[in-house]
Write a structure and sequence with these properties.
The chain has about 350 residues and is of the alpha/beta class. Helices cover about 35% and strands about 15% of the residues. It has one domain: TIM Barrel (Alpha-Beta Barrel). The strands form two sheets. It has an eight-stranded parallel β-barrel, surrounded by five helices. The longest helix has 21 residues. The chain binds flavin mononucleotide. Flavin mononucleotide binds next to strand 4 and helix 11.
């Protein structure tokens, strides 16, 4: 496990120094007007010294109507450039690449976006879709100006891009609805926009759900179709999450092991496995199944040195209690994100 985990991963536009990734992890602590709370810099500074292949930031909101919760950071205007640059500087200070995850909450904007119109896959006009595509492009441009190594599109977990992809949420009859290619069109257009405004060599990643509520064959076929599109377009890698993305309790195996195994047979696009990885055996099993890299979120909150622990054959200390999903209590000193923090 250790040998493969700590070997470089060459991708289309970037080479990751190793195959261990810190998955996107929102810290739920921005100010009311979406500015970075200083604690975040400490988190990234601490991660920078770890033997990681890539750090993925929290999903950062590309447009005000898409704010997904009241503690989410923003990158929708130049007002957020300096602090984004500080995150990038902290995260990359040890030589590990860091990509900014870009997101739009779609219907999760309800109650969180200060009363702006709430975007849903069915109600969005084509002009609004074009506006979202442009907003992602501008956000990516800011992220690159801020010093990030690339960007990741948050196409998972029922945020706007994921809502657009699920037939359960998207009932459109135009070119943005119906077949998998059409439901994926907004993501494809965002990818193309980013390449146009930031340059063709800009590393772009996608996180997407590899299953639907019942893990159906229809959805599996849809995902195979879009992974084919990603491969043709030149997506650097796709992180495979799922409908039930961060479960409570200790898993007996990585959540999406079987999805990775099935998808690997049908696509050559680099795949990053995430979800419920807790032991060296889990990592081994994912590599055997065809994952190119493995990614963890909660284990890093519990112990930023978790990779050393795994390399020594020990389990992570994450109990899966999910307390980390709560908004941060900024009155505590020191600030604790995980009650079992080492
Ligand atoms: C506190 C917390 C915040 C998260 N924030 C994000 C996020 O901003 N974007 C995202 O794609 N996933 C987010 N996730 C999901 C993780 O990236 C990951 O997919 C999930 O937690 C499963 O991995 P794990 O079992 O290693 O925690 C978050 C998870 C946690 C626990």
């Amino acid at each position: 496990m250790t040998n493969k985990l700590f070997t470089p991963l060459p991708l289309k536009n970037i080479t990751l120094p190793c195959r261990a990734v810190r998955s996107a992890t929102e810290l739920f602590c921005s100010t009311e007007d979406a500015h970075v709370y200083p604690y975040e810099y400490d988190v990234y500074r601490e991660l920078a010294g770890k033997p990681l292949g890539m750090i993925i930031t929290a999903h950062t909101c590309v447009s005000p109507e898409g704010r997904s919760n009241r503690w989410q950071n923003a990158i929708w205007s130049d007002e957020y450039l300096a602090e984004s640059a500080q995150i990038a500087a902290c995260a990359t200070s040890g030589g590990v690449p860091c990509v900014m995850q870009l997101g739009h909450g779609g219907m999760k904007g309800e109650g969180n976006n200060g009363g702006l119109p709430v975007y849903t896959p069915d109600s969005m006009t084509k002009e609004e879709i074009r506006g979202v595509v442009k907003a992602f492009g501008k956000a990516a441009q800011r992220a690159m100006r801020a010093g990030f190594s690339g960007v990741m599109l948050h196409g998972a977990h029922m945020y706007l891009l994921s809502q657009c992809f699920y037939p359960e949420y998207n009932h459109r009859t135009d070119e943005y609805g119906g077949c998998a290619e059409n439901r994926f069109r907004i993501i494809r257009e965002i990818f193309e926009e980013i390449k146009t405004v930031c340059g063709d060599r800009t590393p772009v990643f996608l996180k997407i759900n590899g299953d639907d509520r019942e893990d159906t064959e229809d959805y599996h076929r849809d995902i195979v179709t879009v992974l084919g599109i990603c491969e043709t377009m030149g997506m650097d890698a796709v992180e495979i999450s799922g409908w039930s993305s961060a479960r409570t309790g200790r898993p007996d195996k990585p959540y999406f092991l079987e999805n990775i195994r099935r998808l690997r047979r049908e696509t050559a696009v680099p795949l990053i496995a995430v979800g419920g990885i807790r032991t060296a055996e889990d990592i081994e099993a994912l590599f055997d199944a065809g994952a190119d890299a493995v990614s963890m979120a909660r284990p890093f909150l519990q112990d930023p040195d978790v990779l050393d622990k795994l390399a020594a054959g020990k389990e992570t200390g994450c109990t899966g209690c999910c307390t980390c999903f709560k908004a941060l209590d900024k009155t505590k000193d020191p600030i604790v994100r995980c009650p079992f923090r080492k």
